[in-house]
Design goal:
The protein is of the alpha/beta class. It has eight helices and eleven strands. It has one domain: 4-Layer Sandwich (Purple Acid Phosphatase, chain A, domain 2), CATH 3.60.21.10. It is 37% helix and 20% strand. β5 and β6 form a beta hairpin. α1 runs parallel beside α2. Bound molecules: manganese (II) ion (MN). The site of manganese (II) ion (MN) has 8 residues, from loops.
């Protein structure tokens, strides 16, 4: 079995009972470990993850989760960690701690005869997005893309790593909390096949003859399993802080969505 999960947003200041959250996530991994060949975490497992040059005491809160991943990788399970837009600031620390393989960019893999496109999903847009959306939506996307560029700038990352963790974490966790609260107060449900960016992105890929059987994303915190015209399916994983949803690919190449307990 191959498992996919995403968006636990561990450590979020907007999620109460942090330990119960982490414990449930660990139990979920325990369950997967019974028959998993590999486990793909598709981004935003942490609400904020930054590796500073100065020792960061706040990382201690993640030790149980990291220890669990270490246990799985020691058992021979391949654990893949895709960075999201909340936890892209890892520079070798997380890999050393857990034994997981880190992916900074989307990738396509072939498993059990199926082609799978895997990505967190932030920043993925159809090629015609600039003419597709009304002005206000376009502006919002442009703002997000600008911020994404700032987040990914090697120079700015270096500067941030030089901060004292107390300072860097204050900004980081507050920023993450704000975006979480914004989403909880004003959820953005599935926009429909003709508007949802990730669906349009997948359709665009198919049109360009980059065929994949499955497109698997996180990021949106919605559950979606949609067949698109070319016979491909787009699967959006949901989340691991409210609904604890995940996907499973069996040895026959069937992909299914599930909810933990
Ligand atoms: Mn995200």
């Amino acid at each position: 079995m191959i498992y996919f999960l995403s968006d636990a947003h561990l450590g979020s200041l907007a999620i109460e009972r942090g330990w119960a959250h982490q414990k449930k996530l660990i139990e979920m991994l325990e369950m997967m470990s019974k028959d998993a060949v590999s486990i793909y975490m598709l981004g935003d497992m942490f609400d904020f993850w930054m590796e500073y040059f100065i020792h960061d005491k706040k990382k201690r809160q993640y030790h149980p989760f990291c220890k669990e991943i270490r246990k799985l990788t020691k058992q021979g399970i391949h654990v893949h960690f895709f960075t999201g837009n909340h936890d892209l600031w890892t520079f070798g620390g997380l890999a050393a701690l857990t034994g997981a393989e880190i992916h900074y960019d989307p990738c396509t893999i072939i498993r059990y005869g199926k082609a799978l496109y895997l990505a967190h999903g932030d920043g993925l847009l159809p090629s015609n997005w600039e003419t597709l959306y009304p002005k206000d939506v376009k502006k919002k996307i442009q703002r997000f893309m600008k911020l994404r560029e700032v987040f990914r700038s090697p120079f700015l990352q270096l500067c941030y790593r030089c901060l004292h963790p107390k300072v860097g974490n204050w900004f980081g966790y507050q920023w993450a909390k704000r975006s979480r609260l914004k989403e909880l107060n004003n959820p953005c449900p599935y926009k429909g096949e003709d508007k949802e960016e990730l669906v349009l992105f997948a359709k665009d890929q198919e049109k360009q003859r980059n065929h994949r059987d499955y497109y698997i994303f996180g990021h949106r915190h919605i559950e979606l399993d949609l067949q698109i015209a070319s016979g491909s399916r787009v699967v959006i994983l949901g989340d691991c802080f409210q609904h604890y949803t995940y996907a499973k690919l069996d040895h026959k190449g069937n992909l299914t969505l599930h909810s933990y307990e």
